[in-house]
Amino acid sequence: MSKLPKVKGFKxxxxxxxxxxxxxxxxxxLFKIMHWPGWDVMLISGMCTxxxxxxxxxxxxxxxxxxxxxxxx
Length: 73
Known about the structure:
elongated
């Protein structure tokens, strides 16, 4: 198991990087729809960023499930 998910700020980095990669992909799609130059570079870089980020998300520690039957109502 990787120690990377335990590094302080790792989750924040993942969320910021995935949002940034998604915004590049959306802008690349807009450029392609509008037939503006540069769409290919934007889509390729955005999709590569997303692929790397999703690989890092796979190493992330899942949320702890709580036993709610122990809760007092």
